[in-house]
């Protein structure tokens, strides 16, 4: 029995966001002293040469990262590194601080190993995040920065929002993600429309002197033809990849009473849908466009399924909440066994291996 399996029932008696805040405070305390950070590293890090991934001009020591939303304000990047993750995507970061939606806005769906959230882009804004990255130093593993617009912004203002956050935070980033797929922010206009995407990418392309790899994050609910249309725009602008997928508005097959809450669904129920989106992008691009796979990853087999479907890296949020601090180590150790079983020398060799 792990320590977390004993702590979890207690943590789960707290409202989900309270437990999350408490967990983050614990991680922040743990990363702040050298002995506690080292203790975490020696308990949770797992290294193996087969896990290394070279992508976006940098090396990921393993392919398992923390998805956007967990560390919106870059408060615990060093602790996440010590817990054995291969990278973290901070954000979504907006130009100014925002409260987000009223609480409660985060719900556990325990029977479904899922969560529903309608946080609504709460965050401290780009200046606080920048100050913190300067004060704490960037972590020793790759850092993704997920950028977004203010909830109140019009279509034109949104373009300027992305430009400003990009300008302020891209110097710290190994890659930047444009998030146009949040299902719980006000949708005054279609953020993922081809015209709007073109306007964003044109603006950011002009801003991107440092050639920071740029990706876009998509949702799991779009029909295949819309996904492929977006992929074509991504290629037209020579973007560096796609993060697939965000949370879902679907409630199909759920059992937990909290399924009636509105917001984005994450965790086990979206695993297959998200893997299907990855597979269709990989097929459409002949595996040429890097994909970060996210949605329902909580085990070696679920991570491996996304890699075989075409993801070069995977991320998770909900799986971390349910599985606890040893999540990355467990998944990475299991991945090495799966690679050996199937005769792959490295994770990179297995990317897209399941596409017929
Ligand atoms: C509480 C919560 C907050 C999130 N906030 C963001 C966010 O700010 N930006 C974003 O791109 N994705 C956000 N996500 C989506 C996750 O990054 C991820 O795409 C989604 O949860 C699916 O992965 P999972 O099944 O491993 O949780 C959030 C997810 C959760 C559960």
Question: What does this entry look like structurally?
Answer:
This protein has a single domain (3-350), classed as Aldolase class I (TIM Barrel, Alpha-Beta Barrel). The protein is 40% helix and 15% strand. It is built from 13 helices and 13 strands. The chain has helices at residues 3-11, 16-31, 34-44, 77-82, 126-136, 155-169, 194-207, 224-236, 271-284, 300-309, 318-323, 327-341, 347-350; strands spanning 53-55, 58-60, 64-66, 87-93, 106-109, 114-117, 143-147, 175-179, 214-218, 241-244, 264-267, 291-294, 313-316. Helix 6 (155-169) links the parallel strand 7 and strand 8 (175-179). The chain is globular. It binds flavin mononucleotide (FMN). Residues 67-69, 72, 91-92, 106, 115, 117, 119, 146, 179, 182, 217, 246-247, 266-267, 270, 294-297, 316-319 line the site of flavin mononucleotide. Flavin mononucleotide (FMN) is lined by residues 67-69, 72, 91-92, 106, 115, 117, 119, 146, 179, 182, 217, 246-247, 266-267, 270, 294-297, 316-319.
